[in-house]
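Technical note accompanying the year-one report. For the benefit of new consortium partners, we illustrate the data format agreed upon in the data management plan: each record pairs a sequence with a structure-token string. No post-processing was applied to the example shown here.
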Amino acid sequence: MTEAPEAPPAMEFRPVTPDRWPDLAALFEARGGPKHCWCMVWRPWPTGVERSPAMKRAALERTVLGGTPVGILAYVEGKPVAWCSVAPRETYRNMGGDDYPAGTNVWAVVCFFAQRTQRGRGITARLLDAACAEAASAGADVIEGYPVDPDSPSYKFMGILSTFLAAGFEETGRVGKRRHVFRRRLRS
């Protein structure tokens, strides 16, 4: 007899704001956290400037403290346990997404991270739903994502195709050999 999977815990999703910077830093610096990249892989970086973890941390902190949207945190019992990088597309490097008419407010989802204790319980789907809600509440017309096939040898931190399809996204193209371009309209 197979045991039923453990039910996912109650979660609260909140945008990263200056007052939540300590929560984001604690999540990233915890064991297994993404303290090597600080989710700066897809954000603009000046040519010739060192990309050490300390420099990436400082750059993300400046961005957050400056009030620029960077993503959302998932909390269980008041503690940050997962993260999704979702922000206006222009705050990222060129992700290779679609072209839209002038004035279209486009947001992008580029990264997911969950503590090991939260994995395997649908956290990515829950983060993606919360990311769409956050983008919509900020006035986004469209949200893009760049997931990969489930057997992809890299970029899995960007999500997998089935999660985006289940969330109502449609595929509109590809970027490189691995990443797909998906979008979901939030407003007509």
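Partners are asked to follow this layout when depositing records. Residues 123-137 form the longest helix (15 residues).
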